[in-house]
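[User] I have long wanted to understand how a fold can be written as tokens. Those tokens are not coordinates but codes from a learned vocabulary of shapes. Could you go through the record with me and say what the backbone is doing? Thank you; the sequence and its tokens follow:
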Amino acid sequence: MSKFHNERGVTLLEVLAVTVIATLVSLVVMSILMNSKTTSDKQMESTIQLSDTTYILKVVTKDTRKSTEIHKKPLDEYTEYTLINNQNNKKYTYVYRQKEQTITRNDEMIAANVLDFNIEDKRSHVIIDITTPNSKPFSSTIYFRGGS
């Protein structure tokens, strides 16, 4: 019983010191978590843009390989690209709207948030250029093989 009578309680100063230390530790942990979340969000956005751009290039490349003619019609509000396959009478129409930053394929939207889109026919090859919001340009060059 005499043991309990000699012990003193926790002082206000000790409680205050523990509270300050706990607050500082929690602030450091919260800062690390917020920075991690911000970094994760940026990486996720970049990954989504890369995935979207890869999909666009894949679709346009596939249609370009099937085409025998490419026509470009630049207008004020949009640019229209028509890819025609004379062998099976297939036609793919891509429309890039600069203001909306969208690309449609046969009136179906396939991409949004595209800063620039261009299909350039160089006779022996076709160059497809896409620029994403992080200003990273993507390009694909399709060379046509000769022969029958």
User: Anything to note?
Assistant: The chain has a mean pLDDT of 88.
